[in-house]
Amino acid sequence: MPLLGAHMSVAGGMHKAVEAALAHQCQSLQVFTKSPSQWKSKPLAPEDIKNFRKAVKAAGLKKTLSHNSYLINLASPDDALFARSIDAFADEMERAEALGVDYVVAHPGAHLGSGEETGLRRIAQALDEIQRRCPGFQTLILLENTAGQGTVLGSRFEHLGFVMESVRQGERLGICFDTCHAFAAGYPLFPKEDYQATWEEFDHRAGIKKLKAFHLNDSKKGLGSRVDRHEHIGQGALGLEPFRFLIKDKRFTSLPMVLETAKEEGEQKDMDGVNLAALRKLMK
Ligand SMILES: [Zn+2]
Fold first, then answer.
1. Distance CA 213, CA 88 (A)
2. Cα of 103 from ligand 1 centre, angstroms
3. What CATH number does residue 276 fall under?
4. pLDDT per residue over 157-168, tens digit each?
5. Mind giving me the DSSP string for 187-212?
6. Cα 261-176-45 angle, rounded to 5 deg
7. Omega before residue 191 within 30° of 0, cis
8. Ligand 1: distance of its center to the CA of 161 in Å?
9. How far is the CA of 178 from the centre of ligand 1 (A)?
């Protein structure tokens, strides 16, 4: 059975996210270790680190993920922004390593007009430098597939494959698959034949063995829309069917599957509970 979980808020302390995960019977958890829209962050206090590690253990979470800052662009053609992105990424790796987080999930980057191949080479170069600065770390980097808006890279499986092949320490790099992004990028996930074909394509272009985690999100927009708008499970353009396929897919047993959907909807203040219940029902 996959390790269901959600992205949880760390407001009030890193360990608060673990409490929320526990309250929802999660087996996996994603957090921000700092504000995702700011470059600067206070170092984590030793107390924060201790409390988080203790809480993760006590809650029995099997996998933990952190999501990287949205400001980071490893494909930036601007040298100053490129260097700043590498520094910020290495900082996130250190925070995650200290917290004992398994994976740092990152969007590959946007080439901003320099071209796809130039951008992808830039990403590989950046990852080489980040991994060089983080020798022996337990925390691994996962690149997330994207919806492909603007000049954003990573919407094609071959983009991810290219970076995996290009980095020196490819064994320290994996993929996080976002269902909403894949669908918005033009990869169908239902009916069954299309689901199978998409995974064949993924395996061929990027490698199914590189897949370490999922973001489970329905999509507000349609197939190939290239618009990244998450919807509650079963309530968007994907519907329930793809999630049933994923949850029952033997290849993905024991992988973390994390919700990144809105926490509230109108009167309903616990949408994580609603979405997790919808997913658990599909396992039966
Ligand atoms: Zn995602």
1. 22
2. 13
3. 3.20.20.150
4. 999 999 999 999
5. ----SHHHHHHHHHHHHHHT-GGGEE
6. 75
7. yes
8. 18
9. 5
Q: What's the domain range around 13?
A: 3-283
Cα 261 to ligand 1 centre (Å): 9
Helix (H) / strand (E) containing 256: strand 256-259
SS3 117: helix
Tell me whether strands 230-231 and 218-219 are parallel, antiparallel or unpaired.
antiparallel
Amino acid in the structure at residue 58: A
pLDDT tens-digit map of 16-30: 999 999 999 999 999
Q: What is the pLDDT of residues 73-87, one digit of tens each?
A: 999 999 999 999 999
| Token pair in block for residue 108 | 């590959």
Residue 275, both tokens: 């979405």
- Name the residue among 191, 185, 182 with its Cα closest to residue 242: 191
Q: Which residues place a Cβ less than 5 A from the ion ligand 1? A: 178, 215, 260
Question: What digits encode the pLDDT tens for the residues 107-117?
Answer: 999 999 999 99
Spatial separation of the C-alpha atoms in residues 184 and 96, rounded to whole Å:
29
Q: How many domains does the chain have?
A: 1
The residue count of the chain comes to 284
Q: What average pLDDT does this structure show over 216-229?
A: 97
Q: How many CB atoms lie within 10 A of CB 78?
A: 12
